[in-house]
């Protein structure tokens, strides 16, 4: 089945399709700690969560889009447990550290291969990564900040509904965090005005500043006096970043890592330290001169991208990110047509680790599907 078929399928049909997939077999073979999951293996729990979704009071009134997002969040929320499950040598308990983080990447890869559209895929992937957040809200020092931050990554209403189904989809009476705790997520989101929408910051710079402050203040509205605007391009090699710049920012100076590699005669698979150093120097020259420019590199990983964003922010720039992602098939075909090809293995590895940018990182964010 492809995405067009699956997104219109019933919960039972989605579950039946999943059982034909190797990752589902791994879930069925993965044991869980009986204290939290007396029902048994991961796939048994997953099927119970899928059924609990349909028992939610709100289920029948949800738009099909929301039902689809919840269904696939349930399907993938524990998909990485077979990769992360271990037995604590001291307590003997079974645990799966960071399964939600790894699950985000697995869900993204599967949905990409199915042909899922970018916005839906990312909504589901981010739900998978953050599916456990409502359970721990009362342990946060600033619960309101938690729901505000998440509102710009996921829909808090859907996250709350999923948490209900996840809690109910198990056979155990020994939960130390009862279902009632989840209702605080709904209450906190409603009080902050971000239950079914992103939190309404006064300005885009107030939002940007909130997510970068060590001690964020929801009511702080910073003065806006940007020295320039930096447009950071993000996307796999061959995704169309050069074309996008030529069509949309042709008047700007460009700092492009590919151009610097050619200039320095450094292969993409070689050490990139000298390339990054020269790119940073050229960015600083433009920033010191208060000149807007475009920065063109893959920038597909949050940590790597963040180093550049920190630099631009240090110089008082307004930051916009443009993320481009045509299909992987199209990217590979376009790459073969380029004069300087990137090895296909490198592109596939980048795709596996790709973390598309979010509104937490910039003043303005644009998603597109351009191709060269």
Automatic annotation (TrEMBL):
GO molecular function, one term: nucleotide binding
Pfam families the UniProt entry points to: AAA_33, HD
Keyword Nucleotide-binding included in the entry's annotation: yes
Domain of life of the organism encoding this protein: Bacteria
Keyword Isomerase annotated: no
InterPro entries hit by this protein: HD/PDEase_dom, HD_domain, P-loop_NTPase, tRNA_CCA-adding_enzyme
Residues in coiled coil: none
Signal peptide coordinates: none
Keywords linked to the UniProt accession: Nucleotide-binding
Domain spans labelled HD: 42-146
Descriptive protein name: HD domain protein
Organism: Blastopirellula retiformator
Source organism phylogeny: Bacteria, Pseudomonadati, Planctomycetota, Planctomycetia, Pirellulales
